[in-house]
Amino acid sequence: MEDDSGDMFKYKLGKWVLSIDECAFMDLNEIGKNKSMRQYLIESIDNWVNKKEPLITDEFISEMCDFIKSENEVLYDRLVKKCALKGISVGEGIFESLSLLNCGMISAQECRQYGEDLSDV
After folding, report:
1. 0.85 cut: is pTM over it?
2. 91: which residues sit within 8 A by CB, 6+ positions away?
3. Coil, helix or strand at residue 102
4. Which residue, 53, 64, 66, 85, shows the most beta carbons closer than 10 Å to its own?
5. What is the distance, to the nearest Å, from the Cα of residue 69 to the centroid of all Cα atoms in its chain?
6. DSSP assignment of 17-33, as one string?
7. Displacement of CA 49 from its chain's centroid (Å)
């Protein structure tokens, strides 16, 4: 059984997942009956980051990240944290930072939300 901080973590994780997907929330609740949420989160992230996927831009984004980190590690850390807080990929964050979305368009996150809203119609 998880302690009080584990219970709070489980609650917050559940609330966050529910805000994104009700089905995933139900699955998470089932998993939570048999496993610590903290352990499940770490195992899931480990599996996800180690999964080999054919991503065309992955290598170039990694190159950009390596360059940014070599030039200014503090800036790189701030970039990663801001992207995480916004719920976007580092590639999307770099794209936004280049101001390429300022051509009278909406942000990448708003665009995704707009697309999700349209898929409900």
Report:
1. no
2. 57, 61, 64
3. coil
4. 64
5. 20
6. HHHH-HHHHHHHHHHHT
7. 12
Place of tokens 């996927």: 53
The phi and psi torsions of 118 (rounded to 5 degrees) equal -70, -30
d(CA 6, CA 13): 10
* 113-119: average pLDDT: 55
**Terminal Cα-to-Cα distance of the chain (whole angstroms):** 43
Calpha distance 37→40 (Å, rounded)? 5
When comparing pLDDT for 104 and 16, which is higher?
Answer: 16
Q: Pick from 54, 52, 16: which is nearest to 37 by CA? A: 16
Backbone angles phi, psi at 102, to 5 degrees: -90, 15
- Would you say residue 117 has pLDDT above 70? no
Would the pLDDT of 110 be above 70?
Answer: no
Size of the chain in residues: 121
